[in-house]
Amino acid sequence: xxxxxxxxxxxxxxxxxxxxxxxxxxxxxxxxxxxxxxxxxxxxxxxxxxxxxxxxxxxxxxxxxxxxxxxxxxxxxxxxxxxxxxxxxxxxxxxxxxxxxxxxxxxxxxxxxxxxxxxxxxxxxxxxxxxxxxxxxxxxxxxxxxxxxxxxxxxxxxxxxxxxxxxxxxxxxxxxxxxxxxxxxxxxxxxxxxxxxxxxxxxxxxxxxxxxxxxxxxxxxxxxxxxxxxxxxxxxxxxxxxxxxxxxxxxxxxxxxxxxxxxxxxxxxxxxxxxxxxxxxxxxxxxxxxxxxxxxxxxxxxxxxxxxxxxxxxxxxxxxxxxxxxxxxxxxxxxxxxxxxxxxxxxxxxx
Length: 351
Fold this sequence. Notes:
By secondary structure, the protein is mainly alpha-helical. Helix content is 74%, strand content 0%. The chain has one domain (21-349). 45% of the residues are buried.
C-alpha cells in the first residue's frame, strides 16, 4: 500500500514477531536507563546541576523528541498528504489542546499537578502495554484483558507514584517548585504515601497471579522481571534522576521503536535501524520549536535564573504537550488493534 509519505502509521504492522534490532534496542535502553541512574548515584552526582543532567538530556534524547513527529503521525492516520494547509490545521489543533491544559496551570496549579500525574500514570502504563503487544513476542497480554489493565496500571504507577513513597520530601519539594511558578502551593502529598504503597503491593500481587495462571505463554518471566527492576530502580534512585533516565531511554525510546515498525512499508513491520536516523531528522524541527516555546513561556512567567526553576518550567511544558500526545497515541492504539495488528500476532504465536 502506497503511503502519502515515508513516515506515517497509516497501516498498522501486519504482526511479524521477527522484530530483531528493535528488541535489542529496547533492552539496551533498559540497561542504559538503569545503569545510568545507578552510575550517577555511585558518582555522587545527585546534588546541584548534576542532579538535572538526565532531564536536560531528555530535551534532545528521545524524551521531548519522541512526540515531535506527532504531526506526521496524525497526517498518516488521517490519510492526508504533507501539505501546508493540512500541517497548519494539525499544528493548530495540537497547540490548542496543549494551551487548554496549560490554562490549568495558570488558573488552578494544584489541579494541574494532579491531572498531570494521573495523565502520566495512564500514558506511561499503557505505552508499556502497547509496546509489549506490538513489538514483542509475548502473548500474555493478548490473552487477558485483566492482565493488560493491571500491567498498565502498575507500569504507570511505579515511575510516578513510587517516588512519593521512597523519596517523599524530595518529590514533594519538586512538585512545589512547579506550582510556585504560578504563585500557588502544591497539593498536600503526605497522605498519598500509604495509598500509593498499598496500590503498588496489590497491583504487583495481581500481576504475578495473572502471569502464574498463564502457563506455557511467552514473556511472563521477562515482564515481571522488568517490573521488579523498575520497582528497585525507583526505590533506590532519587526521583529526578530516575525519571530523567526513564523518560529518555525507556518510555521515549520504546515509543520511537514502535513508530519505527510503522515506518516499514514491506508489510512485515520490520524496518531498518536507519529508521532511527529518519526519526531524529523528522523530529528535529518540532523539538527545536518546543524548546522555543519553553523560552517564550519564560518571558511571561516569574522564572529565575536557577536551574531548578527552569526544570520545573520544562516539566510544565511537557505536561501541556503530553495532553494532545496522549490523545494521539490512543488513536494509534485504536487503529492498530481494530485492524487486528497486535491481535493477529498473538493469535499466530499461540498456535
